[in-house]
Request: fold
Amino acid sequence: MPILTSPLSAALGLEVSGVDLARASGDQLDAIHRAWEQSGLIIFRGQRLTNEELLAFSRRFGELDPPPVQENGRMSPAGYPDIYVVSNVRDEKGEPIGALGAGEAVWHTDMSYLETPPDASILYALEIPPHGGNTWFCGMQAACAALPADLRAAIAGRRIKHDGTYNSGGYLRQGVTPDDDPQRAPGAWHPAICRHPATGAAVLFLGRRRNSFIEGLDRAASEALLDRLWAHATGPDFTYEHRWQVGDLVMWDNRATMHRRDPFDPAARRVMHRTQIRGTRHPVAFPAA
Ligand code: OGA
Ligand code: MN
Reply:
C-alpha cells in the first residue's frame, strides 16, 4: 500500500497516513524516509507502538544515540536505554520519570552543542494533557530562503556558537558549570548557513539562543544580530504548531528544523517516548555565491 501525504504548513511538514508503523513494508519505509528528508517533519496519527516497535521503526533510519544528559540525568524506561522519556510525571518515590518538566521548552535544535548533532528525533505520545504542551516546529530551509539580504550578508561565511550549558527547559545539564559567557561555555561552532546533506538546500542553523554567539563580532553586535535572526526564523511564515493526540508519532529532521514546547498544567500528565538517530556528518557550510 502506498503511503498518503498531505502538507501541514507552507514552510514544512507532511502528515503521513495509511500506514501502521509496527507493520510498515520496506517500500513504505523508503517513502517515509524521503518524505522526512524533503519536508523536515512528518507526523503519523493513531499509532500503537510497544517500546520494541518504536525502537525497530527508529533503527530503520540509522544508529540510535543514547539520550542526552538533561537536568535529571538520562531518563529511560527500565530496560530500554535507547528510549528517552520526556515527561513531568513523578514516580511513587516522588522522583521525575522524565525530562523537561511542565514548563516551556524554548526554541532549539536537539543537541546542536555537539560537533555532530543527531540527524533526527522521534517523539511518540503516550499521555497528553487536556490543554497546552503543544510542540512548535520551524522550517529553517524556508527561513533561510526568505532571509532579508542584509541579514544574509551579515552572517555570510560566519559560524555560530551553540551552547551546551543549559537545556531547552532552561535547566543546567547535569555535571556542567553554570556560565553565561558564550566564548567560554561548552558547546560547538557551526556554520550559520549549512548545506543540507540530503537535499543540498541552504538551511539557517541557529540551534539555541541562550549563550549563542556569532563569530567575529563583539558581544553587543552579536546579540543584536541574533535577535533579528531569531525573530525572522521563528515568525509565523515558517512555523507549524502540533496539537498532540495519544498515538501521534512525530519525526523531525534535526538538520532542517527547530522546535519548542508550550508549557502545560503541572498537575496534568504528559508522557512521551523519544528516540534519536545519530548524526552521520558534521554540519558543513553552504557554499557562498
Ligand atoms: C524533545 C523536545 C518537546 C516536547 O524531545 O527533544 O524538545 O514537546 N520535546 O516534549
Ligand atoms: Mn528537543
Observations:
- The domain at 4-276 is CATH 3.60.130.10 (Double-stranded beta-helix).
- DSSP finds five helices and 17 strands in the chain.
